Amino acid sequence: MLKRALQKQSSALHSSSVLGGVRLQGCGLKQLGGLTRGHSTVDNEEVGRFNQLSNTWWEEKSSFAALHTMNKLRIPLIKQSLPLSCEDETTPLFGNKILDVGCGGGILSEPMARLGAQVTGLDASKDGIEAALQHRDSLNEDILNRNLDYQCDTIENFVIGREESFDAVVASEVVEHVASLDTFVGSCAQLLKPGGSLIVTTINRTQLSYWLTIVAAENMLSIVEKGTHDWNKYIQPQHLQHVCEQHGCRLTLLHGMSLNILTLTWSWTQNTLMNYAAVFSKSIR
Questions:
Q1: pLDDT for the residue 38
Q2: Nearest residue to 178 via CA among 37, 52, 1, 36
Q3: What are 197-213's pLDDT values in tens digits?
Q4: Which of 33, 77, 136, 192 is deepest in the core (most CB within 10 A)?
Q5: Beta-carbon neighbour count of residue 127 at 10 Å?
């Protein structure tokens, strides 16, 4: 049933323009020479906000609770988007090299590594990467020690010398925080091997998303910290598709994601007016 749901395409596309942010602070990173702020993915206000929450990444009742439960959709989506290994059913992602960009504390990086993928978690927040490393090391699992690496850097720095290195780049709940969507997507595309997958989950910019994520989730129910989201940075699917196409990545899947804000459980839906997942394939030359 999930497979059928993932294969359906939603037609609810809307045009928009958008700004966007990843995270940075305290990594000892230098500003790229010759780049203006408009060409950097870093939004320092976003960075500071996430740094303040860095010690709560692995608290399942924290502001990141919905990210923990989202894995029930994200992991099947990733498996659907990549070639699976038949050698061992416990590690179906074996042989795939995945970049988890904007990984934060590693909530998604760890399960991908356990499924056999060689995973690099990338985040420009030093505090986020420290939280991810501490959690990985505290578990002392052989498969995580072998398969999971973390890097503190920006995507535009990280891409240098690593072009066409990854079978998939996962950008989950990240693009609505970046300062330059074009630079971010362009860097992701450069990192992908020809035929590789760019897997995105994010929030649509609609009146419904404003009322549910800003008014309800932040201000009324305190599911996430106030100020976590900026509605003006939300990205409508057609705009995301346009930017990805400009960098040689073709849309192969678009599907809505629905969060029950009372139980914090996720389900697939054809409606993309709130959260949605999009998968893009890099063109093969």
A1: 42
A2: 37
A3: 999 999 999 999 998 88
A4: 192
A5: 24
**Nearest Cα residue to 40 out of 131, 124, 127, 147:** 124
Of the candidates 55, 71, 70, 60, which has an alpha carbon nearest to the alpha carbon of residue 134? 55
18-66 pLDDT, tens per residue? 222 332 234 544 333 333 334 788 766 666 666 666 788 999 788 889 9
Q: Rounded to two decimals, what is the model's pTM? A: 0.84
Other Cβ atoms within 10 Å of 140 Cβ, number: 8
> Pick from 280, 23, 40, 39: which is nearest to 151 by CA?
23
Q: Decide: 58 and 33 in contact? Cβ < 8 Å.
A: no
Looking at residue 50, what is its pLDDT?
Answer: 63
Q: H or E element: which one contains 144?
A: helix 142-147
**Alpha-carbon distance 188 to 204, whole Å?**
20
- Strands (DSSP E) along the chain, which ranges? 97-101, 118-123, 148-152, 166-172, 192-203, 249-260, 265-269, 275-282
Tell me the residue ranges of DSSP E strands in 56-110.
97-101
Summarize pLDDT for 236-262 with one digit per residue, the tens: 999 999 999 999 999 999 999 999 988
Q: Which amino acid makes up residue 259?
A: L
192-203 and 166-172 as β-strands: parallel, antiparallel, unpaired? parallel
Locate 30 and state its tokens. 């230098």
- Residue 99 in 3-state DSSP? strand
Q: How far apart are CA 199 and CA 71, in angstroms?
A: 13
Buried b / exposed e over 62-71, threshold 16 CB at 10 Å, is bbbebbbbbb
From its phi and psi, is residue 20 left (phi > 0), alpha (psi between -120 and 50) or beta? beta
Residue 207 main-chain phi, psi, to 5 deg: -65, -35
What is the rounded distance in angstroms from the CA atom of residue 189 to the CA atom of residue 159? 10
